[in-house]
Fold:
Amino acid sequence: MKFTEEHEWLRPEDEEGVVTVGITEHAATQLGDLVFVELPEEGRMVARHDEVVVIESVKAASDIMAPVDGEIVEVNSALIDNPALVNEDPLGDGWFFKMKVADMADLDAMMDEADYKKFV
Structure:
């Protein structure tokens, strides 16, 4: 897994350049209980730092940005009915979307788990 300074994680899924994206346990804890998630449309092309997910918690509303350039290929529709999955399992069932990354080399500049733990 790779991590961003915005507390997102990326998990490569296959050799085709698809990654799953979510937020870290640290981010989920800071946000508090999620009550609403708005997911992007599948097939949408995004650029790094584009707003792709809107989340609302009991504490605040926040945007999740695209960590890299690519295409949204799947969304976790389970979050629409149960946004609490993000709090319950942020590194597993609480993922937001899968995307086909334009350039997998972009992940090389991101933190690994040890570096992210130091960052937090």
